[in-house]
Amino acid sequence: MSTMTRQPRINIWGYNTIAKQILSPVILGAVLFALAGTTDWVWGWVFNILHVLVWLGMTIALAAWNPELLNARGKRGEGTKSWDMVLLGIYGMSWIALIVVAGLDYRYGWTTNFPTFLAWDGCLLMIVGFVLTTWSMVVNRNFEPTVRLQDDREHHVIRSGPYAYVRHPGYVGVMISFFLGMPLVLNSYVALIPALIGAVVMMIRTAMEDRTLQAELPGYKAYAEDVRFRLAPGLW
């Protein structure tokens, strides 16, 4: 007779993760309108509502299927690579800069005649990107926010779900949603500048994390031989 594996309960660190994932888009939304100088901005509202919903969807999915990861992502584990903290700092600043620049762009009218179809494409890209990242997090119990060898959490290679196609599908989702979708939803060509910086940082992080895993995680080198591409099948 088979038995079902009981999911671990969400602990205080898990609730910390949930709070950050819900409050961050709300706070950034307030900053966006403050910098725009008005709340009378249709695409600003579209972005903020969609931003909250995709984070909420990710949180609900993790609570249902991988609450252990919510707990792990609420605190920094030991052994985090120092270079990763630097890259995460730049990545975080580029995300905030994207919001800041988009708000100022609306206030001062730097971007004009932005095609509406591109804004709707941006909405679709945000959703697709978050779905891909969420899927990656649901199947990967070791999807922590920093790069480290997780000896304390039985770190192992994941080959299922999107990991059967590329080695870092969660990062693909981030690049699609954050650094391509968001500037388009916000109708801002100028916001593509910090977005490009963030995308380059994410690619550097992908390369360095991949090198670390091949050197330190048993079985990862064989996995890299089977799944050849880091982010884009046929390209890289």
TrEMBL record:
InterPro entries: ICMT_MeTrfase (IPR007269), Metal_cation-efflux_comp (IPR052527). It is found in: Membrane. GO terms for molecular function: protein C-terminal S-isoprenylcysteine carboxyl O-methyltransferase activity. GO terms for biological process: methylation. It is a multi-pass membrane protein. GO terms for cellular component: membrane. The chain crosses the membrane at residues 42-65, 86-106, 118-139, 186-204. Its main location: membrane. Pfam families: ICMT. Keywords: Membrane, Methyltransferase, Transferase, Transmembrane, Transmembrane helix. PANTHER family: BLL3993 PROTEIN. This is Isoprenylcysteine carboxylmethyltransferase family protein. It comes from Phototrophicus methaneseepsis.
